[in-house]
Design brief:
TIM Barrel, 16 helices, disordered C terminus, four-stranded parallel β-sheet, Rossmann fold, about 450 residues, 3 domains
C-alpha cells in the first residue's frame, strides 16, 4: 500500500496521530506538523514554504480546507497531492468507504412529471416548468387537466413542448382534449378505462390503461383485453391508492399485475403518497423507488404541488439510481449515495470533552473555537471553556468585543444549535449538510443539470 504523508497544524497534530493509530494496520504513513496552530488556515503556498520533502511517501494529503493550488505542492515534492476531508474525524470514513461504483447512475424506470395546473398556464409558463422538471431528471412532461371541463390551449401546449424536444403526456379523460393533443403529437395519454376506451382506437400514441372506477383488477383485465384486441399499445396502471383508502391492497394489485403480465409495460403513480401524506418526501420516494425497481416498473408518475413535495422529482431521480444499483448488485441501499439523507445526517464522529479540553490547553489566543457533539455545544479559547446545550446561555457568557464578532459568533452558535436539534454534524465555518439540496441548483438552464450524488 502506498505511504501517505499527512500534513496538519499544531493543534490537530496529536489528534491526527491518534486517529491514524486506530485505523487499518496496513496504512503506512508519516505526519508533518507545520508551524501553524489551525490547519484550516494554511494554504498551498504556506505548505510549499514549510514542507521540504515528501518524507519518503508516495502521496501527500493536505487538509480539506487548505486553499490555493495543490499543483504547486506537487511540483515541489514530485508526488501526488490530494485534499483530505474537511473534518479530521472523517478521516477513517475517507479511507474505509472510498470506492468506485461502476455503473452507478443506470436505471430503467422513467419519471413522468406532472404539471398539475398546466391547463391554467400559457405556453411560456409551461415550458419554464417543463425545463425545471427536466433539470430534476424527468423523462416525460405530463400536462394536467381539470377534473371537469376542458383544456382550451391543449394543442398549443403540446406543440410548444414537442418543438422544444420534450416527450409529452396528457392526463385527462376528456375525449376532445385527447384528440386535440393526439393531433398535436402527444406521446402518451393518461388514462383510459371503459368510460373512454373507444377513443383509443382513434389515436396514434400509447395509452395508460387503468381499472374502471371502484371496479378492481377484473375490470382492468377486461380493458387490457379490448386494447389488445384492437392492437393498441398500452401501459398498465393498477392505480396506487392513498394511505387509509386501500394503499396496502393496491400494492398487492401491483404485484399481482406484474406476475400476470411479466413483460408488459407498467406505470405507478406515487403522488397519492407524496402529496397526501404529512411526511418528508425523501424517504417516501426512496421506498417507492425500491418498489418500482423490484417490480420492474417502467414509469413513475409524480408531481410537486404541495409545499413539502418540492424537490420530489429530483428525489426520485436520485432514488431510482440508488435502488437500481443496490438491486442489481444484491446489496442494501446503504453507504452508496447519501444524497437523500437531508434533514438528518450520515454517521459521523465528534470530539469528546476530554479531547476538546486537551485541544484548549494548546490554544494561545482569544479566538473562540466552536464544536458540537450529539448533546452539547462547546466553545473555548485560551481562557474560557463552556459546555451547554443552550446557545443563548453560551453567548451571554462570552467576551464579545465588537458587533462583527457578535454577528459571527451568533451565526455559528445558531448553526450549531440547529445541528444539535436535528442530529447533524457541525463544523465551524462550514455549511450544514443537506444532502442533494446542498449541491443541486434547480435554476440551472436546461442542459446544465449536474448530478448531486456524493459517492462515498
Amino acid at each position: 500500500m502506498p505511504r501517505c504523508l499527512f500534513v496538519t497544524g499544531k493543534l490537530a497534530g496529536p489528534f491526527l496521530r491518534k486517529i491514524l493509530q486506530r485505523m487499518k494496520p496496513d496504512l503506512q504513513y508519516e505526519c508533518a506538523v507545520l508551524p501553524i496552530s489551525v490547519a484550516a488556515l494554511m494554504d498551498a503556498r504556506f505548505v510549499v514554504k514549510h514542507l521540504d520533502s515528501a518524507m519518503g511517501c508516495d502521496t501527500v494529503m493536505i487538509p480539506g480546507l487548505c486553499s490555493g493550488d495543490p499543483g504547486i505542492i506537487r511540483d515541489k515534492l514530485g508526488v501526488e497531492v490530494i485534499s483530505g476531508p474537511r473534518c479530521l474525524k472523517d478521516l477513517p470514513a475517507y479511507f474505509g468507504k472510498e470506492r468506485s461504483l461502476e455503473g452507478y447512475g443506470d436505471h430503467k424506470v422513467k419519471i413522468v412529471a406532472e404539471i398539475a395546473d398546466a391547463y391554467r398556464l400559457g405556453p411560456e409558463a409551461i415550458r419554464e416548468r417543463a425545463a425545471y422538471y427536466k433539470s430534476c431528471g424527468a423523462d416525460i412532461i405530463d400536462l394536467g387537466c381539470p377534473v371537469e371541463g376542458g383544456f382550451p390551449g391543449v394543442e398549443d401546449a403540446v406543440t410548444s413542448l414537442k418543438k422544444s424536444g420534450y416527450t409529452v403526456s396528457l392526463d385527462t379523460f376528456n375525449e376532445n382534449d385527447i384528440l386535440k393533443a393526439d393531433r398535436a403529437g402527444v406521446d402518451l395519454i393518461l388514462s383510459v378505462n371503459s368510460r373512454n376506451l373507444a377513443v383509443a382506437r382513434r389515436l396514434h400514441c400509447k395509452v395508460v390503461v387503468i381499472p374502471d372506477f371502484e371496479r378492481g383488477l377484473e375490470s382492468l383485465e377486461r380493458n387490457i383485453a379490448r386494447l389488445e384486441g384492437w392492437g393498441i399499445p398500452y401501459i398498465i396502471d393498477p392505480v396506487l391508492q392513498p394511505v387509509g383508502f386501500g394503499f396496502t391492497g393496491s400494492v398487492g394489485d401491483l404485484i399481482a399485475v406484474r406476475r400476470k403480465h411479466p413483460r408488459a409495460e407498467m406505470l405507478m403513480g406515487i403522488g397519492n403518497l407524496t402529496e397526501l401524506t404529512d411526511a418528508d418526501t425523501t424517504g417516501i420516494n426512496a421506498v417507492m423507488a425500491a418498489l418500482a425497481t423490484e417490480l420492474d416498473i417502467d414509469y413513475v408518475l409524480t408531481t410537486e404541488v404541495i409545499s413539502w413535495a418540492r424537490g420530489a422529482v429530483r428525489e426520485f431521480d436520485v432514488a431510482r439510481n440508488l435502488m437500481h444499483y443496490a438491486c442489481r448488485n444484491r446489496m442494501p441501499p446503504k453507504h452508496i449515495d447519501d444524497s437523500l439523507i437531508t434533514v438528518k445526517d450520515p454517521p459521523f464522529e465528534t470530539y469528546s470533552e476530554e479531547e476538546l479540553r486537551g485541544m484548549q490547553a494548546e490554544v494561545r489566543d482569544r479566538n473562540y473555537r466552536i464544536f458540537a457533539d450529539r448533546d452539547s455545544v462547546y466553545v473555548f479559547n485560551n481562557r474560557t471553556f463552556i459546555k451547554d446545550s443552550d446557545v443563548r446561555s453560551i453567548f451571554g457568557r462570552l467576551d464579545v468585543r465588537d458587533a462583527a464578532e457578535a454577528f459571527y459568533l451568533g451565526r455559528e452558535l445558531e448553526k450549531a444549535s440547529l445541528a444539535l436539534k436535528l442530529g447533524k454534524k457541525y463544523v465551524q465555518e462550514q455549511d450544514l449538510r443537506w444532502g442533494y439540496l446542498s449541491e443541486w441548483n434547480p435554476h440551472r438552464r436546461d442542459g446544465e443539470r449536474r448530478g448531486s450524488q456524493r459517492i462515498l
